[in-house]
Amino acid sequence: MIDTGVTSFMILSTSLVMLMTPGLAFFYGGLAGKRNILGIMMQTFVSLGITTVLWISVGYSLCFSGGTGGIIGNLDHAFLNGIPFTQLYAGSGSLYPTYIFIAYQMMFAIITPALITGAFVNRISFKAYLIFLVIWQLFVYYPFVHMIWGGGILAKWGVLDFAGGVVVHAIAGFAALASVIYVGKRRDTQSPPNSIPLVAIGTGLLWFGWYGFNAGSELKVDSVTTLAFLNTDTAASFAAITWLIIEWVKTGKPKFVGLLTGAVAGLATITPAAGYVPLWAAILIGIASGIICYLAVSLKNKLGWDDALDVWGVHGVGGVTGTILLGVFASSAINGQSGLIEGNVAFFGKEVVAVIIGAVYAFVFTYLMLALINYITPVKVKPEEEDFGLDFSIHGEKAYDEGAL
Question: How confident is residue 188, by pLDDT bands cut at 50, 70 and 90?
């Protein structure tokens, strides 16, 4: 019999995760220069359509079929073949329609490649990006979903990732770094954010949606669900204030963008650990996130990597940090898994190895993939298109009536 309460919760969580993609578009759109607002927002929103088509046709099947211990699933459930709408998902111990589990996981698939777009804002052609969107999911995202969440080889080995430290943030962040190195620097690296209020709106939507992202990943309603919810908010808040203080001390001014960026870093970092660690550990994870991700962004600037919107420093480094700290702080009293502080050295080692594998593979594959795409269609836009802005040169539209600015 269907558990209507949990079904309603999963529908709500799915809706919250869907809201994160428009939130990401606002976040990135506000940070971009005024001639590239629509270009970056378009890259984010188009994933809602392309990824849904891909997920229904082959994505879900490749991620969640094919048995245990493998790297990728099979096509037994292509186009949801063999899954009637009346079928119930019982993997979490609560009965609710399998279709809502499919939809929930689809929202993760939609936002993960969209995270990468902030790194190469105003440098990649839309045609090349669409090819990138499809290939990257097939060969990077889907295998890691299957290996960790679909009963694959890493899950069998004992690797845990509550809501996407490896599966979402680490692989997206290091794919972003590979993209930045491949396409090179922007011609104009001094372009300031066009709308910090828009960044704030995007952050608010991301933060709000992240409750569905993390709490919903328990896939049922119990005490761990509520702990994951509170851990999410706590880590984000401590990271935001930590980033604010560091930047305030360094620059002499409390920066709003810094506060918002710190919050997103905290959200990314707590993601893999939200349902496995106690509240006090979420506080430490938030503080560590604010410090480590801030230092990563500073290192990126020092090395001259033109990661325009700090995808690597926030999501990549945040995902790696959170996965490692999951290996440290996991508590057997919460979800049955002990970490390093409880003497489980083996689990800590597995988490470290898994996140390194994810980061390295995503980086190498993404770089080679971009080189391959460049043989099909130019990846980087023409200099004159970049100078003029991608909004009008590629999309033929403008975000604002210039006469009103």
Answer: confident
Helix 98-116 vs helix 126-136: angle between axes, to the nearest 10 degrees?
130
We report the CATH number of the domain holding residue 219 as 1.10.3430.10
Tally of structural domains, the chain:
1
When pLDDT is cut at 50, 70 and 90, the band that residue 189 belongs to is: confident
**Amino acid letter for position 268:** A
Rounded distance between C-alpha atoms, residue 13 and residue 243, angstroms = 28
The predicted-structure confidence for 350-395, as pLDDT tens digits, reads as follows 999 999 999 999 999 999 999 999 999 999 999 999 999 999 999 9
Structure-token pair, residue 176? 């972003």
Contacts of 127 (CB under 8 A, 6+ apart): 377
Closest residue by Cα to residue 63 from 175, 152, 164, 133: 152
Q: Give a yes or no: residue 126 inside a domain.
A: yes
Report if residue 397 sits inside a domain.
no
Buried b / exposed e over 328-341, threshold 16 CB at 10 Å, is bbbbeebbebbbbe
Contact present, 30 and 193 (Cβ < 8 Å):
yes
Residues 13/215, Cβ–Cβ less than 8 Å: yes
Pair 315, 164: CB distance under 8 Å? no
Q: Which two tokens stand for residue 200?
A: 């704030």
Q: What's 124's DSSP letter?
A: B
What is the pLDDT, as a whole number, of residue 402? 67
Q: Is residue 399 part of a domain?
A: no
202 within a domain of the structure (yes/no): yes
Find the Cα–Cα–Cα–Cα dihedral 106, 26, 117, 101, rounded to 10°: -10
Burial of 284 per CB tally in 10 Å (0-12, 13-18, 19+): middle
Q: What is the domain extent for residue 92?
A: 4-390
pLDDT of residue 381: 95
